[in-house]
## 1
Amino acid sequence: MVKFTHKFRSLLVAIFLLGALTILVIRLFFLQVLWHDFFVEKASQQQRLTIPLPPKRGKIVDCQGRDLAISVPVKSFYAVPAQVKDPEKVAKVLAKALNVDRKIILKRFSKEKHFVWIKRKIEPDKASEVIALKLPGIYTLEESRRVYPGGKLLGHVLGFTGLDDQGLEGLELKFDRYLRGKPGWRLTEKDATGREVLTSRRFEVEPQDGLDLILTIDATIQTLAEAQLDKVMEQFNPQSASLVVMNPKSGDILAFVNRPSYDVNQASKTSLDVRRDRALTDFFEPGSTLKPLIVSAALEEGVVKLSDRFYCEKGSFSIGGGHVLHDAHPYGTLAVHEIVSKSSNIGMAKIGCRLGAKNLYNYMSKFGFGRMTGVDLPGEVSGLLHPLSKWSKLSPYMIPMGQEMTVTAMQLVRAYCALANGGVLVKPRLIRKIVDRDGNVILENLTEKQDRVISRETVDQIVEAMKGVVSSQGTGYNARVDGYSVAGKTGTAQKADPAGGYSHSKFVSSFIGFLPADHPEAVILVVVNEPQHFHYGGTVAAPAFQELASALMRYLEVVPDRMLAREEENTNQ
Amino acid sequence: MQKTAYLLFYTTLFLIAVGLVMIYSTSAILAQERFGDALFFLRKELLWVAFGVVTLYVGYRVPYEFWGSASLWILILSAILLVGVMVPSVGHQVGGARRWLKVGGFSFQPSELAKYATIFFLAKRLSSGQNRVKSFVHGFLPPIAVLGLMVVMILIQPDLGTTLGIGTVGMILLFVGGVRFTYLLGLTLISLPALYYLIAGAAYRRARILAFLDPWKDPKGVGFQIIQSFIALGSGGLTGVGLGESRQKLFYLPEAHTDFIFSIIGEELGFLGVLMVCLAFFFLFVLGFRVVLKTEDLLGHLMGLGIVSLLAFQTVINMGVVTGTLPTKGLPLPFISFGGTSLVLNMAGIGILMNLAGRLDQRRNRDSRESLRVRVKAKPRRLFARRRKT
């Protein structure tokens, strides 16, 4: 029978256990009601998930709106390792489908992370095959990939982007902050394995797409120019070559080619050397192409007239200090325009002396040498124009024949634009406009007229002289264009020998000119670095100029000079 | 007291219903992910509930004296099953512990049976030997030997939570059954070094103690589970985030449908929901203790006390663990946590309590007939009526 002590002791047990339960209720009240805010904060710290929403990168189009760089949607695969049931099997399937090393995938599966990339930027139709396999723990993300429909076309100018859509070279780098856009984000929640809980999306900020870049480049002219330069590369097998086509009035760059080049779609596989934008980053001694600029300076200063005659020393002229100047062919007495057309070094040296060092320096500076052109591309160099204080007694002889100073192709084209547009220095322009997706202009790059270098009268005279270069008597006869008068100049510069002096086998051959000579539509420069077997600018560069120029005139539908002359005759009658 | 039996039944049913809802809420996503079937755990639990209704009815209808007479056989059976768990071909191992026997898709946990077997055995032994209970050799040693044997067999599975449950309930029965308090105190003091050795000897148990003392020291490691439980309860607030809306069940709180289901109740239903569950448990235990205290037969008294103490002890430990009041011990919340064996046996236990309650009526009817004179005096009914001298 149950005694009092039994009941008493049972009662103690009951009181103890029920008391403990009561204490727990009080504890729960503290945890849940009094400390609620603290734990809500803790919960949201671990559950909050901010998903970045990538913007679409802006396009790059040519002056006619043709795509040069676009972004296409692609899928990127990632894994949540904890959810992958059979890593061996899944890795095998993925390795085959996505062309990734199986061992690399397995290694990533073994990481203690909630997110590992498997492979990024897969074409949508290929990706959907893998998605259809419904592999547990394998997911995809929408990303975009940069595609350059032209392949190698304009590669150096466009540059390329990295895996995270960031600009790494060329315009992609320089205008990254416009092209990039602004990423949006979504505030949501995640489970402990890092997956988004779809029902608890809270807040979303839409991404802002990047802006589009409208270039001054014309893809058609660019294509023609690239084909020409490729031909030069094939024919003369040079180290490198550059070609620039510019509108002299606006400074618009119509074509911009460098060789060697590369396919920007596969930029990561190329060397830095190939990626270099040589027309901006490489400098050379301009050689004879500088002569018309010197002569125009001399005419402007009134120290010579086109008809003035100079004795050209029969091809050999000692200037003191053991230095002897040579001409390619021995000449007697030449008029100034003949010195230009026949490219006499000795004649130029004499003109330079008459102009004087101070004037030489001033004009070279006015033509823009020794400072950057400010074109919208990264990596430009300024070339070299020594300050007067560093000039030697021989400098006034050397500078007029394009030695003792270095220029970039872009600088040379800009200087010639001044000759072509009536004497004003323009700023080279690569970007015409920056517009948003709806076509609203965000930024317009207006032509900047810069300082006048020489007068219109001087321009008319020097253009006459330069026409002679492309005549049957001149060095640039190969550059003549049917139906159009061409003003130009050849250049054949010996390269400075690292051992001292000038090399007799390594040349920079060039031709620069504009047409139609009296109302120019385009300035074209062809520079060929170290051509093999041939080295005269008239032989190496001038034919490329000729072919490109005649195609360009047809494309731009420029009225030929002869028809123009006939029209004038008709109106005169 | 038939009313008490029904109240016991309905309160239990309420807790089971809460359990079923919360098992579905906490396990659906896990089950979907693991088995491709969101109802996997709910379906299993429903089968166990059906089986539990049967055992509850058996417990209610079979006179409790039967369990006392059969207690030795039940004890032997559960000992055999505990040994069976140790046999690799029969025992089912989960996470380094051998606790289950697998029979045709259903797993059975012999340690749950061992709890009841121990209660039955001790109740029988103590009630039939009241004259020798004060003796050290005859009253103290034999039950302690049996209790110790069961405890050791469960401890080597290992399952420290169940071990502590059986040990504590065993000690309660010895204490109430009249064993000298000094013996029990001495035993407790002697077993303290052993307990210390057990905890300090196993790295995970030591880590759990450290996590209990300062969970925030290593929130990603040993403190992870308890912090996740805190966050679940705390973010629930007064009214909860809403049924089914728990975030913590999304794999933050591992296996949230078993030992930590109470945290998710707190998160989804808030303090008010948790309070409802606590009140239901409180009411259930008050009913149970009332029946026990009214039972004049010592066998029934001890058997009932053992059952109610076991349920209350497990409830307190489970809630203590999820609220960080006690170090982490794997003990399910009775009637609510997912788990078949414990549900079926706890329902049987409720059945036995109902049987006790029903028997009180029979005796009162008999008493009232025999002593009408006393009732005429219309003494007010007292909660804990003192035994009348016969």
## 2
Amino acid sequence: MTPTLQLFLTISAALFSIGLVAALSRRHAIFILIGIEMMLAAANLNFIAFWRFGPNPQQPTGVMVAIFSIAIAAAEAAVGLALVIAIYRHFRTTNVDQLNQLKG
Amino acid sequence: MSSAAFAFIAILTLAAAIAAASLSKLIHAALSLAVAFVGVAAFYFLLGAEFVGLVQVFIYVGAVAVLIVFTILLTRRDAVTSERFNWAGIVAALAIFGGLIWAIYQTPAISIIAAPIEPLTVRRIGQVLMLDYVWPLQCVGLVLTAALIGALILVMEEKR
């Protein structure tokens, strides 16, 4: 028995949910970034799985979307981690619960 | 596409992802994230997208994971924070997971196995990237340049 598309989508959904847990329930800013990266990886896995199982896998459209998405994710990681460092320099903490200056 | 390899990679990836989301020490979580990214790259290899798998290893494991580790080292002073765990996030994530699983297994059209294809060569990817996708490629280059300059400006020392 070879894996079906459903199995790949299940793995991707599980990866997305784990990333969502990390992004929603951790209080450290770097954990939130880790969760976002995991959710982006799950989306890329979906792109590749739909490309491979789709009706026209000779056209590398899904591969191209995944490559561009990885490049954008790299840019997002760089800017996000720079923000974490800037926030740490300013507030001496990276706990997002203590960053409540804008709270009304 | 063998099911044994699939099961092995799936267990490795999900275990590493759970470790990355739940470990209390940041550095351990970052290294588990690198393992999870290697697992996702193995899925790409399994699906016949070798180039994307290599790109995943180079960029995520090589660059993003190292960047996260450097950020952890630079913000070390509160690397271990006692944090209360937020159960609402877990409930929301479980609800979304349940909804996704329900949608996936309600759709009969996607319970298919992959048709055999010719391997996608790097030569073909390069041709497509340079002919059909040349403007998106330039835009991504512009975005990356702007993002890296912005990141540098963000972390420059504040003038006092």
